[in-house]
Amino acid sequence: MTERIIALSSVTKIYTRGGESLVVLDHLDLEVARGGFCALMGPSGSGKSTLLNLIGGLDHADQGQVEVAGTNIEALDGSALAAWRAETVGFVFQGFNLIPVLTARENIELPLLLAPLSRKQRRKHVDDALELVGLADRADHRPSQLSGGQEQRAAIARAIVTDPKLILADEPTGDLDRESADQILDLLARLNSELGKTVLIVTHDSLAAERARRVVHLDKGRLVDRSEAALAPGGGN
Amino acid sequence: MPLRLVPRNLLKHPLRSLLTLLSLAVALFLLCLLRSLVVALDAGVRGAKSDRVIVQSAVSLFVFLPESYQEKIRQVEGVAEVMGWTWFGGYYQEPANFFAQFATDSELLFSMYPEIQIIKGDARDFLADRRACIIGDQLASAYDFDIGQSIPLIGGLFPRVDGGVWDFQVAAIYRSNSSNVDRKSLFFHYDYLQQSREEGGVEGPPGIGVFVVKVKEGEDPLAVMGRIDALFENGPQRVQSCSEAVFQAQFVSMVGNIPLFVGSLGGGVFLAILLAVVNTMLMSAREQVRDIGIMKALGFTNAAAFWVILLQGLLLALAGGGLGILGAHAVSEPMAQALGAYFPGFAVSRETTVVGLVISLAIGVLAASVPAWRLSRLSTVQTMRMEA
Ligand SMILES: Nc1ncnc2c1ncn2[C@@H]1O[C@H](COP(=O)(O)OP(=O)(O)OP(=O)(O)O)[C@@H](O)[C@H]1O
Ligand SMILES: [Mg+2]
What we know:
The structure holds 2 protein chains of 2 kinds.
Chain A (H helix, E strand, L loop, with lengths): L3 E14 L2 E14 L3 E5 L6 H8 L7 E6 L2 E2 L5 H11 E4 L11 H6 L9 H15 L14 H13 L5 E5 L7 H16 L4 E5 L3 H6 L2 E6 L2 E4 L12
Parallel strand pairs in A: 3-8, 3-9, 6-7, 7-8
Antiparallel strand pairs in A: 1-2, 1-4, 4-5, 9-10
Helix pairs in contact in A: 4-5, 5-6
Chain B lengths: L4 H8 L1 H33 L5 E6 L11 H7 L3 E9 L13 E4 L1 H7 L3 E6 L1 H6 L3 E5 H7 L6 E4 L12 E11 L9 E4 H10 L10 E6 L5 H11 L7 E5 H11 L3 H30 L1 H10 L3 H38 L10 H27 L3 H8 L1
C-alpha cells in the first residue's frame, strides 16, 4: 500500500453571502499518494482553488478532516499552521507569485528566511533552485523584468527551495503561451519524477492535465476520478 | 522577517516617500526650534536663585524707585545685601543691535551674582575705572569686542543732551554658568550713570530700576519679601517684591503666553503631519496587500507582516524627523545670534533632540500601526480575493 500524503475525508466548505449559503465542497473525500502527480480540473467556480487552499492550510474547512503529510492541519492554530506550511508545502499561483520590489533571487530566498540557515547556505539553496528552473542568468532581475514564463519558473524555484514534500500549483500555466506553459509543465513533471515531489495542480488546460498521472474532476462539490489508472502506466498514484 | 522589503517598498515610490519625508522634516525642524524658544524663555526662570529677591515698583516695572530705598531695605531684618539694578536701554550704532545693559553697584555685583565669572581681563580694572564695563563672552564674540576697546552706546532711556554717545571701556569679559544671567549683557557702574544725570548732561528718569536683595542664610525669603513690602506700604512709592524666578517669568508672560501658544502650534503641526503620514502609509499598505498574501502563503506569521509595514512608517518618520532635527541644529547657532538678547541661551538642546526623535517615532508608530495591524491579519485567501 502506498503512503497517502493527502487524505481528505468528508470535507465541507460553505460560503455564506448575504444570507445565502453556497456549498462549494460537499462531503468531499480525496486521497493522494506520496510521489503522485495529480491534476484537478473542473468548471470555473467549482471550488478548485478552495480545495487547494484547504490542502495547503491557507483556508479552513467547515467540516471534515484534512490530513496532509501526516498532520491534521485543522487542529493547528495560526502560527503553528504558518510554520507547518513553511516546512511542508510549496505554492505556485497564477499571477500571484512574486513580490515586485524583490529580485528573482530575493523572492526565491524568502521562504529560507524562516529556516535556521546561514546567508551562505541560503545562497547555495537559491542558486541550486535557480539552476534547476533554468533562471540562473535572470537571478537579479525584478519580476517586472521577467517574462510570464520566467516569473512562473521563479515561483516554482521558490516553491521547491525549502525542499517541501508537496507542491501545490493553482493554474500555473493559465496566463502563458503554449511554449512557456509546456516548459512549466516539464518542470513540474521533473520535480515529480526526479525529485519525488508530490505535485497537485489545478488546471483548465487538458494538455496540462495529460501530463499528470492522475486527473480528478471537481463538480458540484464532489470529485469524479476519471483517469486514475488509464493515464498512468505506473499506476496506483 | 524579510527586512529588505522595508526600504524597497519605501523606494518604490520615491517621490511620494520623499514628499512625506520632507513634510516630516519641515515639521520637526519647526517643532525643535519652537521648543528651543520656550526652553530659552524658561531657562531664565529655572536658573533663578532662590535666595535672591527682586524689589520693584508696585505700579510697574518701568517706574523707577528712589535711591534712598536702598539703605532702608538694607536695614530690613533678614536682608544680607541690596544692590541697584537699572535698565539702561541703549543700543550700539543702530537700534537693531540690541543687547541688555545694566547699571549696577559694581562692588556688589560679584558677591551678589557668583554666577558671573571673569574669564578675560581683571575685575579690579573694572572697579578702578569709572567708565569701565564688563561684557558677556557671547556679546564679545558677536561684535568682536575685546578688552581695552571702547563701546559707544546711544542712550535709549538715558539720551545725552548733546546728542552724543556714551562710552564704555571694556575692562573684562565674563561668563555665566547659569541661564538666569545672560551672556550677552553689559554691566557698568551705576555711579557713572548717576553722576552724568547730576551733571545734567543726560535726560531720563531719576532713581533706580529695581533692587536685587540677597536674603540672609536661613531666612525665609517670603517673610523678607513681606517685610520689605510692608516697609513702603505707606509710600512714598509702594513696592512689590518677588523671587528672582517670578521676576524672570514676568518677561516670559510679557511676550504673551508663549509656552501655551507654542504648545498649541506644535500640537497642530503634529496633527497635520500625522495625517499626511497616515495617508502615505494607507496608500502604501494597500499596494502591499498582495505581498502580504504571498508572505503568509510562504509561512510568515501575522507578526512578521505587521513589522514589515510598521517599520516602513517608523523608518520614514525617523528619517524625516531626523533630517528636520539636524536642520534645527544647523540653524541653532545663527538663530541664537539673530535672536540675540531677546532669547538669551537659545540653543537646540540634547533634550529637544530627544523630544524631537520621540515625536518622530510617535508619528511613525501612530501612522503605521493601523494599516500594519489591518494588513497583517489578512489571510492569503482574503488577499487573493481583494486582488480579484
Ligand atoms: N470568500 C468567499 N466568499 C464567498 N464566496 C466565495 C469565497 N471564496 C470563494 N467563493 C465562491 O466559491 C466558489 C468556488 O470558488 P473557487 O475560487 O474555489 O473556484 P475555482 O474552481 O477555483 O474557480 P476558477 O476556475 O474560476 O478559479 C465560487 O463560486 C466563489 O464565488
Ligand atoms: Mg481558482
